[in-house]
Amino acid sequence: MVKLQYIGVFCLLMIVFACKKDDAEYLRFSELGAAKKEYTIPATAGQLEVNVLSSGNFEVMLPAEQEWLKLNSNKMKGDTSFMLDYEANDGFPRKSLVALYAPESERYDTVMVKQSGAVQPALNFPTLNTTVLGDGGQVVGKLNTNIPLEDITIAVVYPSPDVEPWVNTDFAYDKSTENFSFTVKPNTSQTELRSVQIRLSYKDGWDMEQVSTLYLLQANAQNMFGTQADFPEIRIWAGEKITSDLFIEGHVVSEAGNPNVGDVPQTTPTKINYAENDRTVYVQSEDGRYGFRILTSTPADNIFKRYSKVQILLKGVGVERESNPNRYTLTGVTSMMVMKQEEGSAAQIAVKQKYVGDLTDDDIYTFVTLKDVEFPIRKGSFTPINEGYSTLFSADRIGKYPLLMRDKNGDDFFTLTNTRTTYRRDGSMLPAGSGTISGIIVHEKFTRFEYQDAASEQDYGNIGRYQIRHLAKEDIKISTALNSGFSELLTEYQYPNIVNGIALPTFGNNGSISFSTNTVNLSRSSDNSYLGPVGKENIGNTNQYGNGVLTSAGSKQNTEATTNSDGKGAVTNATIVANNTWWNYEKDRGEGFVVDFSTLGINTNQLSMQFTVNNHVGGTGKGAPRYWKVEWSEHGNMDGAWTKIKSYTVPDAPLWANTNIHQLPGYKNINVKLPLALLGKEKVYLRLVVERNLASDGNSYASEPLSVATTTGIGYLAIRYNK
Q1: Which has more confidence, 104 or 390?
Q2: What's the CA gap between 148 and 420, in Å, rounded?
Q3: What is the pLDDT of residues 440-484, one digit of tens each?
Q4: Which residues pair with 576 in a beta bridge?
Q5: For 306-321, what is the HEC assignment?
Q6: pLDDT for residue 115 is more than 90
Q7: In this structure, are residues 376 and 405 in contact, taking their beta carbons and an 8 Å threshold?
Q8: I need a labelling partner for 376 at 20 to 30 A (CA). Which of 133, 248, 319, 445 fits?
Q9: Residue 240, H or E segment
Q10: Rounded to whole angstroms, how far apart are CA atoms 395 and 25?
Q11: CA 607 centroid distance within chain
């Protein structure tokens, strides 16, 4: 109907095209054009002024079919303007073309006038999926719409073109009851169910399309859909495809289209499977005890709405079980298998609040709120990486980042953020206090943190038994105030504060960081902790947010001109680094960093250290120390006895020409629980030293002895304790 309004104008313009003079010299000096090509006006009545640049006489014409625009004069000359009176619009948004035509030069132009509507079109099936018996007959579903049925396009979509049509076209809508109805033919098959989509669509006057689809499943001739099974019953099918007519009922705790729902596996060092995220759905039992991950057959099959209550047919679905930890995935689910889907709300989802230490394997793929948690790395964003390796620069070399968190009991874990998450680097500082984080409990690998850490290559990359995936920034409810948290800083190094080759704290004055031999001075280097925004469109966007670190004077640390100049998130002079061969062959031990501090007067049940690390390999990618350890003593003598606390690995920065699956374009964050035996000491020492004389040969993970000087950095380090 809308398109018919413009037939007259379009015909006129076609005539102008056909009759255009072949007189280039004349046309060169003629002019006709609206100063603005499109206007948007409110739904209320009013007047619009349109400015025109013209070198001669011209006419203004409106489509004869529309009546809501009125022209005060249609013959104009030269640079001028004309007025359009428009009526109030108590309906849907609408638009109209206004044509300008200069007869002498046969030039023309058009202006589009779009008017908002007092009413916005609505088209929504609150229950997306429904069923009908095999006997056939009438189907009735609720439809929320203010659009006349005759203006809605209805398409019946069968699973394949060769299906014999069984949905009748007697569609009706009762506005008073909001009932949308039609009839279907009986199902003659004694065993097979059948499915169809009823797709409703409407385009308003602005060509904005509203679409809603009803998914209909019909029982077989025996009026049977199958038998409801609980989640443990489905788990028994692990390793097989379900051959029985079973269905489950539960609540959807994820949402289609969310870029941070699921894993984005790194299939090769330079390729990422983003579609796995788009196919991922999490459905948990009504009591919230158990959960399944569902991988739909295609992203289009992921029709699941967050909080909805669903019934899903599982005949033909594969059940995959992964162990250590135990978790279950359903594969091959299509939209046609959804028997019923009713809209719900967060209030209908079972409440699960836990400490990290209370999580069990049954919590995997369910929605959980973790209590009393904090981000202990007070620097950078959710994804502090070199964005040149990410999707923002059309690169597929890192698809997610695990950010360290810990709770008041001292247990640590990672929150996972995919690189397609919009708010991951929006310029906001990480909250410095404590609170809660809610999301889906998962177990995912990340080979850029850990590699060759298991007997089988498919198990490489274990970064903990449980991680959490937030689905919205609002899922993170943590106070921004440092003094509101459950922990207190004993000492902190957020950025380099180096005097005579030794790093001094940026918070307080407790202790220092030095190299294990006094012949090496610490220096400064860069990291990718810039808060954002980042990406190609932000090249040269310097110093808007810095790296989220405040100096003692209250200003943001690092306002140097080169910060983020390439849009990749780099912050200059942001890390503490040392250059060395790292292995003392004379004494057959590693070298490293030594941290000293006092614990006098501290009474606590939790003492810990958090730090970030990365190897800045040279152009060959060789020679950087892979295996490290944390040890402590009261004497600080490198040749004395030290007590080991924890081993850890340090990733290499990647080389663009030869990116390996174990290289990390950013700093790795690590948490270390410190023994309470360190308390009450006037001075205590921690050393972060190389544990094994092994490095990469440029391609391997750790196969060669340390033989050349390389640079290793600490991007952040803090010692904290519970209040």
Answers
A1: 390
A2: 39
A3: 999 999 999 999 999 999 999 999 999 999 999 999 999 999 899
A4: 524, 714
A5: CCCEEEEECCCCEEEE
A6: yes
A7: yes
A8: 445
A9: none
A10: 50
A11: 33
Q: Could you say which DSSP state residue 619 is in?
A: T
Closest CA to 258 of 475, 103, 522: 475
- Token code pair at residue 426: 């929006």
Q: What is the pTM of this model?
A: 0.82
Question: What tens digit of pLDDT does each residue of 656-710 get?
Answer: 999 999 999 999 999 999 999 999 999 999 999 999 999 999 999 999 999 999 9
Exposure string over 536-559, b if 16+ CB within 10 A, otherwise e: eebeebebebbbbbbeeeeebbbe
Higher pLDDT: 557 or 674? It is 674
- C-beta atoms surrounding 112 within 10 Å: 15
DSSP 8-state class, residue 6: G
Tell me how many degrees the CA angle 413-430-667 measures, rounded to the nearest 5. 60
Residues 233 and 250: their CA atoms lie apart, in Å, by: 14
Taking the C-alpha atoms of residue 220 and residue 140, their distance in angstroms, rounded to an integer, is: 19
Model confidence at 561, pLDDT cuts 50, 70, 90, reads confident
Written as six digits, the tokens of 172 are: 């009706």
Kindly report the CA angle at 255 between 249 and 259, in degrees rounded to 5? 145
Name the 3-class secondary structure at 612.
strand
Reported residue count of the chain is 723
| Three-state secondary-structure class, residue 13 | helix
